[in-house]
Design a protein that fits this description.
Number of strands: 27
Shape: globular
Distance between the termini: 25 Å
Number of domains: 1
Structural class: mainly beta
CATH class: Mainly Beta
Largest sheet: 9 strands, antiparallel
CATH architecture: Distorted Sandwich
CATH topology: Beta-galactosidase, Chain A, domain 5
Helix content: under 10%
């Protein structure tokens, strides 16, 4: 129905960052901004018609500028981890930024989440408002080869879904693995944990991760493990199980192997019993990382000064598998000049 715009803050160099509010005919709204092409808020009703923001947000731009802050961010060039910060593409070896224990995480020291994106276009002429952001990543940025042009389009549908369409083109073979890093809490209260949220994931296995959360290349069935969400269960039911990955992470940080069927398919559903809110996730990507916000730095706050605490949000990051360049049995994240990178992820909200 509409798109509104106002200035959210200024970068240290004086660049003004705008916040865009998209609203549909049900008064559901999302807010996105140019810094990191971030989702700043998603306001949806509960079963009683009360609207709340169901993603963690900061009150000021300065808080988003902190190192390591990923709230709502577009992540790239390569979401998740690449072992040893080294890749080989088309016979050439590239050294990437090693920003986490010798590995590359979420694109390096200055990933897409810290870039100022430009608004390409917007559409508020009908009941499906949308806005597109573009970013040009130059050859060699964070060590990645090729000039990469990326477009991310956010659409708010009439059935209360946030649709995220990604597109990228390169002039040299490179790696591309884009995702969104929104931290969800369907209660609408960042002061509450998400352990009673009921999660169902359409995945029979995960990619086994070893030291530093780097995959071993092995697929492990979820049956009879804490990662078995094939039937809905509270996120907190098994979060303290004596399993290596849970112990290493202090909660879930698992990549689920989604259905191999082509096209967009349902990956997960989350239900918050008190509010009645439901979020369904659909994607055409092969993997999805479940992260239960296992820790935040001290003195970091959500909106209205609420301290961010472990397990007060969850992320469902649709993606290629972590470290896919080093595992020939993983789907390839290589993009060539002859191809166009496209994928779609949908977060659809309802009540029950």
């Amino acid at each position: 129905m509409s798109i509104e715009q106002h200035i959210f803050g200024e970068m240290p160099n004086g660049t003004k960052i705008h916040l865009y509010t998209l609203k549909n005919n049900h008064n559901v709204s999302i807010q996105v901004m140019e810094y990191g092409a971030r989702v700043v808020s998603i306001h949806v009703p509960d079963k009683n018609g009360t609207f709340s923001n169901v993603v963690l947000s900061h009150d000021t731009l300065e808080e988003y500028l902190a190192d390591g802050d990923f709230l709502g961010a577009a992540v790239g060039r390569y979401a998740n981890r690449i072992a040893d910060g080294t890749v080989r593409i088309d016979g050439n070896t590239y050294s990437l930024s090693q920003n986490e224990n010798g590995n590359t995480l979420h694109g390096g020291f200055q990933g897409f989440h810290q870039k100022v994106w430009q608004v390409k276009d917007s559409n508020n002429s009908d009941d499906v408002p949308s806005i597109s952001f573009i970013y040009h990543s130059p050859d060699g940025e964070e060590g990645f080869p090729g000039n990469l042009d990326v477009t991310i389009k956010y659409t708010l549908s009439t059935d209360n879904a946030l649709v995220i369409d990604y597109e990228a083109r390169t002039d040299t073979a490179t790696l591309v693995n884009l995702t969104n890093h929104s931290f969800f809490n369907l209660s609408g209260d960042p002061g509450q944990d998400i352990l009673s949220h009921e999660l169902q994931v359409n995945a029979d296995s995960i990619t086994v991760a070893g030291s530093g959360l780097i995959p071993t290349g092995v697929f492990s069935p979820v049956a009879n493990t804490a990662a078995d969400f094939r039937q809905a269960k509270p996120i907190g039911r098994d979060i303290h199980a004596e399993e290596p990955l849970l112990l290493q992470c202090g909660g879930y940080d698992h990549n689920f192997v989604l259905s191999a069927e082509s096209g967009i398919k349902k990956a997960a559903e989350v239900y918050e019993p008190v509010s009645g809110r439901v979020m369904e996730t659909f994607t055409d990507m092969p993997g999805m990382q479940l992260y239960t916000a296992n820790g935040f730095p001290e003195n970091v706050y959500a909106s209205d000064g609420v301290p961010l605490q472990a397990h007060h949000a969850f992320c469902l990051e649709t993606q290629f598998y972590p470290d896919s360049p080093h595992h020939s049995n993983f789907p390839s994240a290589v993009l060539t000049p002859a191809d166009v990178y496209r994928h779609t992820t949908i977060y659809k909200f309802s009540v029950r």
